Amino acid sequence: MTDGWNARSAPPPASGSRTPAYGANGANGGSPWWSDALADPWRDPYAPSQVVVPAAGESTGPAPEPVVDPDAPRRSLAPVLLICLVTALLAGGLGGTLGFVFAVRGGLANGGNTQLGAPQADPSAAVNRAPDSLAGVAKKVLPSVVTVRVTGAIGSGFVVSADGYVITNDHVVEGADDTMSVSFSDGSTAKASLVGREPESDIAVIKVAKTGLSPVTLGNSDSVAVGDPVLAFGSPLALVNTVTAGIVSALDRTLQSGDPGGTTRYYAAIQTDAAVNQGNSGGPLVNAAGQVIGVNSVIRSLSATEADAGNIGIAFAIPINQAKRIATDIIDHGKARRTVIGADVVTGTATVTGARLRSVEPSGPAAAAGLKAGDVITKLDNHVLEDGTDLIALVRKYAPGTVVPVEYRRGSKTSTTSVTLVADSN
User: Fold this and answer.
1) Same domain for 361 and 302
2) 10 within domain boundaries
3) Which of 89, 94, 124, 235 sees the fewest Cβ atoms within 10 Å?
4) Are residues 235 and 325 in the same domain?
5) What confidence tens digit (pLDDT) does each residue in 44-100 have?
6) Is 39 exposed, middle or buried (0-12, 13-18, 19+ CB in 10 A)?
7) Region Disordered: what ranges (predicted)?
8) In this structure, are residues 383 and 398 in contact, taking their beta carbons and an 8 Å threshold?
9) What's the CA gap between 26 and 21, in Å, rounded?
10) What CATH number is associated with residue 403?
11) Burial class (CB in 10 A: 0-12, 13-18, 19+), 228
């Protein structure tokens, strides 16, 4: 047994002859390896049991790769790169086109930005607001609202005629001189002059040096109901062109205001929770149809001083029927007629519920209705009276010549009558 290192080479076969395949036991002329290979303990059991030497010219497998000459000229890669570039551009263009088409069909073509929220069903509805919407009413009324500027003060007003008449509060123009001016919602300004005032009703008329104006539409304050939606316009705290919304909170809210030693003003007002502050005075209170139903005039505040007063959701407006009547008198006659009942009443007492008559004019309407001094009027036109202030404020609301039912108490007896109100003689 040998490891094969001392094997002898067999003589080369004759030209044109084939080397025979050797058997496992060295048959056919003997093996160039060892004859007992299968019994060799060092042999790989998975190796073939015999070696076949191919004859000359017989193929032994794939031909070896040719040796490349490193100095041979190389083929240019430019055509290959150009083809790759063109292919990439075509693929990108096709992909972008398909993506855009799918985006448009899916409703996502929005200028390259991510779309948040559902698409609008009708975008024009938000731009073209209905005339009867709050925004539509505001757009209609604002051109007719003015900011009134008096030396050291600011208020509001609204145009009631194309030739420049404006209604505002008496307390807005109190102390006005030739420097008074107004500004409009478009930013334009004009000089203004005082036409006339009615201090106790807190109504004044001014004339603007400008024509071709857009007057407001005046409504009917007698048809207003509690709960009606309203808008308040003006310049609160000098914030011009401000609009606030609310409802009618109460009707015929009787008030008395005025500084000590000054004019005492009486209101049978429309109460609203629309935000009203200093500077809103004289501005219009408008219903849902865009009609003026009141003149914003007074606010209720928790502050003890006027300088610190602010909105708490309780504001009052003079009914437009009353304001219109007074303004017409001022424009036509230079002064307003004040409506009276022909009696002097007791105010500021809580000992009696109702309006106690201190005295009655002998030829006045109260005397003509059978009323006497000492009588206590408990109702006027079915409105319950708490004290004398209520009677004065409600009488001011009506036009001269109006007939109103009255309930009164004389001693322990309650009676009714009708009074024809008149204008005072002043």
Assistant:
1) no
2) yes
3) 124
4) yes
5) 666 555 555 555 555 555 555 555 555 656 666 777 777 877 887 787 777 777 666
6) exposed
7) 1-41
8) no
9) 9
10) 2.30.42.10
11) middle
Q: What's the pLDDT tens digit per position in 251-261?
A: 999 999 887 77
> Using a CB cutoff of 8 Å and minimum separation of 24, what contacts does 173-177 make?
173/148, 173/197, 173/204, 173/206, 174/199, 175/150, 175/151, 176/150, 176/151, 176/206, 177/150, 177/151
Pair 365, 421: CB distance under 8 Å: yes
Of 274, 299, 333, the residue that ends a domain is: 333
- Both 169 and 249 in one domain: the answer is no
Considering the domain architecture, whether residues 371 and 300 belong to the same structural domain is answered as no
**Distance separating the N- and C-terminal Cα atoms of the chain:** 158
Same domain for 319 and 225, yes or no, is yes
pTM of the predicted model as reported, rounded to 2 decimal places: 0.71
Task: Tell me how many domains the chain contains.
Answer: 4
264: domain CATH number? 2.40.10.10
333 included as an active-site residue: no
Please give the Cα distance from 341 to 325 (Å, whole number).
Answer: 18
Chosen domain end from 208, 238, 255: 208
Of the candidates 31, 144, 170, 171, the residue annotated as catalytic is 171
Domain annotation covers residue 77 = no
**Would you put residue 38 in left (φ > 0), alpha (ψ -120 to 50) or beta?**
alpha
Label residues 318-350 b or e (16+ Cβ within 10 Å = b).
Answer: bbbbbbbbbbebbbeeeebbbbbbbbebbbeee
- To the nearest 10°, report the CA torsion of 99, 100, 103, 107: -170
The answer to whether 273 is a known catalytic residue is no
- Could you give the maximum distance between any two Cα atoms of the chain, in Å? 171
Q: Per the structure block, which two tokens stand in for 389?
A: 């202030």
Q: Give domain status of residue 400, yes or no.
A: yes
* Cα(389)–Cα(395) distance, integer angstroms: 10
Q: Please list the ranges in the chain whose pLDDT falls under 50.
A: 1-10, 14-19, 21-29, 109
Nearest to 147 by CA among 319, 322, 278, 317: 278
224 and 327 co-located in one domain: yes
Domain that holds residue 2: 1-43
Are 255 and 272 within one domain? yes
Examine the residue annotation and report whether 383 is marked as an active-site residue of this protein: no
Of 221, 281, 297, 375, catalytic: 281
